[in-house]
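Page 37, continued from 36.
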């Protein structure tokens, strides 16, 4: 079971890094426009995702709530103190 905890920890860290890269991409898109090769389509993809969730009404709202719940749950588990006994 110790291995599963390590895998969950690594996946949490990778997810956090990817979210930081998305934030960096949004900022880069705002500052430089579509001239950057790697960060060029992050903002249109995010707005498309938000529009799709909005077009689905209640189903989109439920999907958004589930996504937020999973991120909050992951942060709670990541901050849990480890027992060293």
């Amino acid at each position: 079971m110790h291995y599963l905890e390590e895998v969950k920890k690594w996946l949490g860290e990778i997810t956090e890094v990817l979210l930081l890269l998305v934030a960096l991409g949004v900022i880069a898109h705002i500052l430089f426009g579509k001239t950057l090769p790697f960060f060029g389509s992050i903002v249109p993809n995010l707005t498309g995702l938000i529009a799709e969730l909005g077009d689905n009404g209640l189903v989109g709202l439920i999907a958004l709530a589930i996504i937020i719940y999973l991120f909050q749950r992951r942060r709670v588990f990541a901050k849990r103190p480890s027992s060293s006994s």
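The helical segments are 2-32, 42-55, 58-78. Flag for discussion at group meeting. The first helix runs from residue 2 to 32.
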